[in-house]
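ingest -> validate -> predict -> emit
validate: passed (alphabet ok, no gaps, 204 aa)
predict: started
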Amino acid sequence: MVAVRDVTCDVLADDRIAITGPSGSGKSTLLHLLGGLDVPTTGSVRWPGIGDATDLRPGPVGVVFQGPSLLPPLDVAENVALPLLLAGAAAAEARSTATAALSRLGLLSLATKLPEELSGGQSQRVAVARVLAGRPRLVLADEPTGQLDHVAGAVVIDALLEAVDHLGAALVVTTHDHQIAARLATRWAMTDGSLSQRPAPCSS
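emit:
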């Protein structure tokens, strides 16, 4: 079975892209290929403006997943700081950077809370703060509002857009929500593994 077929596209430095399509259409697989999480069986994925595939995470590519991605034993600040520590940052530097990211997104009051004490919307905003702390050049979000109501989902998208604007990073979001898709300048649609692009080709 082919998940993604004959796709050719570019993601440029300031892009804001929504990928829509039904479940099983291949949009999450495409996102994972863009982030180097999956390896294509044919064809290739290149990151000429970022670097080698082995250096994408933690680093130039940040990923926000649909489901819970925070580690239960760590508090919010520790969760945000963890990728920085894994990348070799000193503990004090990682903690300071995590605190700044939480503060920027209005989450500093949650710094000492455990993930189990957070709402779904709060958890996703903390996941965005974790991405922001790593200062990536490409942010990928796989159905980041899929488990949230419209109000909480809008807050998460606000946080994502603020984060990438602050970083000067590109943003690619998969979503079933056409209201969220409409907030991003470029829309791609996946159908049975094939990609169509609106309003213009992704290389423009």
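Residues 21 and 46 are 24 Å apart (CA to CA).
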